[in-house]
Amino acid sequence: MKKSIILIVMLLSVAALLAGAALCQDDLEYLDNEAFEDPRRPAVPFSHDTHNQTAELDDCAQCHHVYDEDGQKIEDESSEDQACADCHGLDDDEQKPGLMKAYHLNCKTCHISSRKGPVACGQCHPK
Ligand code: HEC
Ligand code: HEC
Ligand code: HEC
Ligand code: HEC
Fold first, then answer.
1. What is the dihedral of CA 48, 33, 67, 113, to 10 degrees?
2. Would you say the CB of residue 46 lies under 6 angstroms from ligand 4?
């Protein structure tokens, strides 16, 4: 009897650990390219937390932004619980760049303006 209770408690804590890991961006190492119907390049390596710490980005909304209806960025609001692909379709629409353009604009614009980080195709899409 006691043994089976211990076993259940152990199983529950393992389940809790796994659930916690799934919610945490700590171990995000690659950017998901599944939203692209037929990806032409390998998924981009991106160590989320290490990247953001090294680059000293503490405003999550620099990437996980939220806009109001007039296209004004809402300060102090973040869309970190959503994938880029939840809002950005494969093609541009009147308001938003399509998914590939959204990524390229987001990543490259900052790397170019800060003169740090990769800007060449092969640096972000290693073979
Ligand atoms: C700063 C990093 C960065 C650079 C530089 C970059 N890309 Fe990307 N690219 C991304 C990210 C991030 C994605 C979306 C996530 C993913 O594909 O894993 C993406 C997606 C793509 C996609 C759509 C997905 C696919 O595999 O079909 C293509 C095509 C692509 N890039 C081609 C290029 C080409 C060509 C260049 C050079 C002109 C380039 N990229 C430079 C980061 C970059
Ligand atoms: C909640 C929906 C939403 C999510 C999630 C989202 N975006 Fe956007 N994004 C928008 C809207 C709306 C616009 C158009 C804003 C405007 O009207 O100018 C936009 C515009 C952009 C632009 C062009 C304007 C700019 O800020 O430079 C880029 C680049 C971009 N998004 C990249 C991304 C990336 C990368 C992600 C994921 C990390 C992402 N977006 C997640 C809604 C979203
Ligand atoms: C340099 C841009 C950037 C910054 C800054 C950033 N993120 Fe992200 N984050 C991303 C991208 C890109 C993804 C992958 C989105 C996708 O797959 O659509 C992501 C994914 C996530 C995820 C989902 C993880 C998963 O495993 O799917 C969470 C949670 C998250 N970020 C939280 C945060 C928080 C909290 C902050 C601020 C402390 C932050 N992010 C800052 C770019 C950024
Ligand atoms: C707001 C600015 C900013 C944005 C947005 C940004 N980066 Fe960076 N990134 C940097 C800076 C700054 C560095 C250099 C950090 C250092 O080594 O000092 C860097 C370095 C990198 C590096 C090399 C070091 C490492 O962490 O492996 C990669 C790869 C990279 N970025 C990928 C990306 C991708 C992919 C995106 C888009 C999803 C992105 N970055 C968005 C600022 C940014």
1. 60
2. yes
